[in-house]
Amino acid sequence: MRDNLSGRDVARLGDKTDHGGAIIEAASDLSHRGVAVALDKHLTECPKCGGTYPIIATSARKHRGVKVASIGDMTACGARIIGSEA
Q1: Which InterPro entries match (predicted)?
Q2: CATH number for the domain including 62?
């Protein structure tokens, strides 16, 4: 599923970050290709920074009033979501 404005794919549970971590929290009522979609402030784990950090979603697309996270969005520790195929 792509964001119509940015053309970027949505971020999903398990997608990787460029710090070697992954998305560990996602919506229970929104999925793409059978995998839960991550939203703004959902958590990622970061082995580089040593903790869990929220996603800072930038998409105009929203689910129940909350921004949908996309590939390329950042986390609070500065990691970039790169997806599961990267």
Answers
A1: PAAR_motif (IPR008727)
A2: 2.60.200.60
